[in-house]
Amino acid sequence: MHKIAGMQSAPAKVSFKEQMHQARERAILQSACDLLGEKSFDAMTMDDVAGKVGIAKASLYKHFGSKEELCSAAMVEVLSAAQAYLKSLDGSLSALDKLQAAVRWSLERLLAQEMPLLPSRNSTLRAVLMANRSYADGVIEVSDLMGEWITQAQEQGVIDADLPPIVVLYTLYARACDPVVGFLKDSTLYRDEEIVDLVLRTCFEGLRAR
């Protein structure tokens, strides 16, 4: 029997074994993201991940061959979430509002320990990340989008036009690992939303009295 033109074949069914494999992999990635937010790459171990998921370390290695490979995949997951959020922003917002929304999102993730702490400069993860095409492409896309907003905000006079856009971009990126957030959280003096507002204020308005 010939297939009727224009009709599409039904998608192949995923076996129960494969569904379980995918579910376990999602759990591993989520646990790795959580641990990266709590401990950082250098302090996290594969034993930590296996224990958090509730599987044997040998099973963990069936999904990811090394800590670098696992954490690289986890960083791609976080970056994908950031890309999705930035793309969801209302197009009618001003460039400055979009930049503030982006920083707010990263600060909220940081407070919830959902933002992976960046590895040290000499960490083996850096080389793996830079070789990961999905991660590299994602960073370029986010940087290009935020760079466009920074340029627009400078043209509108709401961000200092004398500052090189790349300096502004890296300053905003740095808020995703800002130790001030942790210090304020540990002080118990402020609620999470107050911490976000205070860090946003110092970031975009500075410390000089107006």
Order of helices and strands: HHHHHHHHHH
Overall number of structural domains: 1
Q: What class would the helix/strand composition place it in?
A: mainly alpha
| CATH superfamily grouping | Tetracycline Repressor, domain 2
Mean pLDDT: 88
Which fold name fills CATH's third level, the topology? Answer: Tetracycline Repressor, domain 2
Biggest sheet character: none
Looking at the overall shape, the CATH architecture is: Orthogonal Bundle
Instruction: Please bin the fraction of helical residues.
Output: 55-70%
Annotation, overall tally of beta strands: 0
Contiguous helical run count: 10
Rg, Cα atoms, Å: 21 Å
- Uncertain segments are none
Distance between the termini: 79 Å
If you had to describe this structure to a student in words, what would you say it looks like?
23% of the residues are buried. The protein has ten helices and no strands. The chain has helices at 16-38, 46-53, 57-63, 67-88, 95-111, 124-131, 133-155, 165-174, 179-187, 192-205. The protein has one domain: Tetracycline Repressor, domain 2 (Orthogonal Bundle). The model has no long low-confidence stretch (mean pLDDT 88). By secondary structure, the protein is mostly helical. The longest helix is centred in the first third of the chain and has 23 residues, at 16-38.
Question: Can you give me a brief rundown of this structure?
Answer:
This protein is an all-alpha fold and 210 residues long. It has ten helices and no strands. The chain has a single domain, classed as Tetracycline Repressor, domain 2, CATH 1.10.357.10.
